[in-house]
Write a structure and sequence with these properties.
Layout lengths: L2 E6 L6 H10 L5 E7 L10 H11 L6 E6 L3 H8 L3 E6 L2 H18 L2 E6 L9 H9 L10 H4 L1
Parallel strand pairs: 1-2, 1-4, 2-3, 4-5
Length: about 150
Amino acid sequence: MRRAIFPGSFDPLTLGHHDIIMRGITLFDEVIIAIGKNADKKYMFSLEQRIKFIEEAFKDVPSISVKSYEGLTVDFCKKVDANFILRGLRNPGDFEFEKAIAHTNRKLSEIETVFLLTSSGKSYISSSIVRDVIRNGGDYTGLVPDSVRK
């Protein structure tokens, strides 16, 4: 069984995330969307809301699930018996940041990180941009899945 986790805060889930997850499920038997809890971070949406957004967005895909976790991502991978970490890359800056994390994770646990490039039409979307649009009353509907728009 090829099980991957797709870690992040998903505050909120974006069409960029959705793109990577749907393409990732073609590579793995199962993808667990892993919402990391960070006590130092201020979230716009509660953990419960973020879980609901994700569960609703992927309700028709039984091989995709969502779980939350605290601590090291590699420890969560061991807990759920995942062999891979799935990550999306939007730009060269993402690559440099993610490469350092992937090397560290591999050193700690020998887990493989698989990178997918976000589709070109979605590469500009980030959760921080979506939050800024929402805070300022802009139209964010073209940036997030239907489950977040409700």
